[in-house]
Design brief:
β18 and β19 form a beta hairpin. The strands form four sheets. This protein has an eight-stranded mixed β-sheet. A six-stranded mixed β-sheet has the order 7-2-1-11-19-18, sandwiched between helices. The protein has a three-stranded antiparallel β-sheet with strand order 8-9-10, with no helix packed on it. It is built from 16 helices and 19 strands. 44% of the residues are buried. α1 runs parallel beside α12, α2 runs parallel beside α12 and α5 runs antiparallel to α6. It is globular and about 70 Å long.
């Protein structure tokens, strides 16, 4: 093979980073290095979901890739309307059914390790993986230097590497994001600079998540025909709610509960550079994750209906997660560096769309970087096109996801009989829209360099 037109370093071997690496395999003239901080490629968390919009992007990676995913999903992909979630008002002695969320197509759910394994199996020979490489900094040549000089990466183990393009897919605690934003802020006036630098670190969203697995056998002993043994159900209450559904071929019920601090949730995506934002005060000194006893775990939901209590009383222990987000960024690129996925737009989990957005980022990045018109000299323009087309959309998804949680926690003044329609309209982008229009626009902008993309 002839020498590559440029070498891309992807820092982070999660869903977004590996999807980008697999997508770039279409372009044999691009060399890819994936640097992962962990000793092995592994994913934290039990599940990953893709709504039809994101799954249609995954299908573009080829029929063999799609088939491997479907084998691990356990059910077929469809675009027919299905009842996805049953929702109840549960913060009262006798709960009532509110609505069924109808979606055009299913949420395709995978065990995260299975999804990860499929991505790894499709990495091409042109991609080199590196484990135990935790990035601590990078140096991008200044405009005074040759614009084609390589970017230098420095890792925690003292080693260094070079690349032509750096993509930070390194999650919510991204190292690339603060370095990139510092570069972006250089030369700005003090107020504008402060605003940009305030986006470097993740913030507590005001949401706490309660996660555990419930033994289906234990729940069945309490209530032999409980609804969550067979269907996805959401138990909604004022400022707190939870959802539960069967997994692992019915052996367990996955439980995800949430509490929402109304004031903090309202301001999560607003500029507040002058007002210090409180950090999460958890059970163990600001840690993002802590273990809870059963009694601690069920406390926010203790006044829920009997149907919910059967589930709650079957819980043995659980984990409390402080859900952090990234503020709306002024840019996701600078020079030949860009960020994607949670590094760019970490969001609350209320629409199950974080992974899907990183998949969309990956495919659009592949489209602009892999285009035959893109050269090392025009990489900054290609990344600016990515930012122009993806940042507004992912920011809107983050806003809609937060609103879904607020609606489910009865924090908006919406009549109960209108709640189902309101939640559906806020969410239907995930099954009624496509990435295709953005991909077409990306190609148009790459091919016509006379159009301003900044």
């Amino acid at each position: 093979m002839s020498s590559p037109k440029f070498r891309i370093a992807i820092c982070g071997g999660g869903v977004g980073g590996l999807t980008l690496a697999v997508a770039l395999s279409q372009h044999q003239d691009i060399a890819v290095d994936v640097y992962e901080a962990a000793q092995t490629f592994c994913e934290i968390g039990a599940g990953v979901g893709a709504w039809p919009r994101a799954f249609r992007v995954l299908r573009k990676l080829g029929p063999d890739f799609e088939q491997q995913l479907l084998q691990r999903c356990g059910y077929e992909y469809t675009e027919e309307y299905v009842a996805a979630v049953k929702s109840r008002k549960s913060d009262q002695a006798v709960g009532v059914e509110l609505f069924d969320l109808m979606t055009k197509g299913k949420l395709m759910r995978f065990h995260r390790a299975d999804f990860h394994g499929v991505l790894l199996s499709f990495l091409p020979p042109s991609c080199t993986t590196h484990n135990a490489k935790r990035l601590i900094s990078y140096t991008q040549p200044s405009e005074d230097c040759s614009r084609n000089s390589p970017i230098t990466l420095t890792f925690k183990d003292g080693s260094t590497a070079t690349c032509d393009v750096l993509i930070g897919a390194d999650g919510i605690k991204s190292v690339v994001r603060p370095y990139m934003l510092r570069e972006l802020a250089e030369g700005m006036d003090p107020d504008e600079k402060q605003s940009v630098l305030s986006c470097m670190n993740p913030i507590w969203s005001g949401v706490a998540a309660y996660r555990t697995l419930v033994s289906a056998e234990k729940l069945r002993a309490r209530c032999p025909d409980h609804r969550v043994l067979r269907e996805f159900t959401q138990y909604m209450g004022k400022d707190a709610y939870f959802l539960a559904y069967p997994i692992s071929l019915g052996q367990y019920v996955n439980f995800a509960g949430f509490t929402l601090d109304r004031d903090l949730v309202d301001s999560a995506y607003k500029a507040d550079t002058d007002v210090p934002r409180p950090s999460f005060k958890g059970k163990t000194n600001d840690d993002w994750v802590s273990e809870l006893t059963a009694q601690q775990f069920i406390e926010p939901f203790k006044d829920f209906e009997e149907d919910a209590q059967h589930i709650l009383q079957s819980i043995e222990k659980g984990t409390l997660w402080a859900v952090h987000t990234v503020k709306n960024l002024p840019s996701t690129n600078f020079g030949r560096v860009a960020i994607m996925g949670d590094a760019a737009h970490a969001m609350v989990p209320f629409q199950g769309s974080g992974a899907g957005q990183s998949i969309e980022d990956a495919y659009l990045l592949m489209t602009v970087l892999g285009h035959k018109s893109t050269t090392l000299e025009t990489v900054p323009r290609a990344l600016a096109i990515y930012d122009k087309l993806r940042r507004p959309f992912s920011s809107e998804v983050a806003r809609r996801s937060m609103r879904s949680g607020q609606l489910c926690a009865f924090q908006e003044d919406v009549p109960l009989h209108e709640l189902g329609d309101t939640i559906t309209k806020n969410w239907e982008w995930a099954w009624l829209t496509d990435l295709d229009d953005a991909l077409e626009e990306a190609v148009r902008l790459v091919e016509d360099s006379s159009i301003d993309v900044n």
